[in-house]
Amino acid sequence: MTVKVAINGYGTIGKRVADAVAAQDDMEVIGVTKTRPSFGCDLAVRKGYPLYCTYDDPERISAFADAGYACGGGISDLLAVADVVVDCSPGKVGASNMERYKAAGVKWIFQGGEKHATTGRSYTSCANHADNLGAEGTRVVSCNTTGLSRTLVPLLEACGSISVECTMIRRAADPGDSKKGPINAITPVLKVPSHHGPDVMTVRPDIDITSMAVAVPTTIMHMHAIVVTLPDGHGMTTSSVLDLWRQQPRVVLMHGGDTGITSTAEVMEFARDIGRTWGDLHEIFVWEDGVKVEGNKVWYFQAIHQESDVVPENVDAIRALMGTESDWRASVARTDAAIAVFNGLA
């Protein structure tokens, strides 16, 4: 079975999801949408993705032809031939889009910019793949929640219970966004606790977590400073925690002192050096020498590439909704192998 995938919104996340889907042998990108003719249309054409308009308005559709682009029609035309739509449109438009998807009879996936209450269901590969099998739709959680899940879920499953406090040191904006973010300031998120902890609990409600956040003037990554309280008698050591994470997909551990990778700038340089498309790092980066277990506490730092860590999760979510792979690890292995081939790393 080849799943026909529509991508509604061909921006920072949408263009990456489209490439990840196109790399899979059980999926096909049948179209991507843009709101108007723009450079993104040129990229879609070069990639060979059929182009559609985000709207059904005839004037908006004809604007593409006027600009020299072949346009397959409006969003309704795309949904009519899709099995599932990955919504990568700007946040907070999900509710209106969802009604359209339901009316078209297609499955749907939203991104972390939408609230869990909008969809009633959220997704992270390692946390709740089985809970999403065959569902009508879901929401792939945010880049930060995805990163937290990848390191916290293994600790939860190894120890039975955990309590977490984390500080999110957030990038101010994506690299291509010149309109947002502090320029010479550190901006605290004054809603305490921040939304990140509760968002983790949408995929694993058994993780007891609270969070605070600040935005800093950088664009390339987020950083998490995390303290985990383990139950009495946990039996974990610094070495065993590191070994646990080494067994997890989409987690990279490196020793900053040995490698010279001691900052987010060097992490992203590493991603470029290994030849990743757009210099992306789908994995969560953990500094081995920044991990410490003492008593019942685990301290560690991790870095999140906000433009790309959720991309493979969207591919796994498609398999969950379509019921084509019930084992999350099998789906992850298949997704990641295909992306590696696609990026020329195999």
In short:
With 346 residues, the protein is an alpha/beta fold. It has helices at 12-22, 39-47, 58-66, 75-79, 94-104, 116-119, 125-128, 143-159, 196-200, 238-246, 256-259, 264-273, 311-322, 328-342, and strands spanning 3-8, 27-34, 51-53, 84-87, 107-110, 137-139, 163-171, 187-188, 208-216, 222-229, 251-254, 284-287, 292-294, 297-304.
Descriptive notes:
The protein is built from 14 helices and 14 strands. The protein has 346 residues and is an alpha/beta fold. It folds into two domains: 3-141 and 310-342, NAD(P)-binding Rossmann-like Domain (Rossmann fold, 3-Layer(aba) Sandwich); 143-304, Dihydrodipicolinate Reductase, domain 2 (2-Layer Sandwich). The strands form two sheets. Strands 7, 8, 9, 10, 11, 12, 13 and 14 form an eight-stranded mixed beta sheet that branches. A six-stranded parallel beta sheet has the order 3-2-1-4-5-6, with helices on both faces. Helix 5 (94-104) links the parallel strand 4 and strand 5 (107-110). Helix 1 crosses helix 13 and helix 13 (311-322) packs across helix 14. The two termini are 25 Å apart. 45% of the residues are buried.
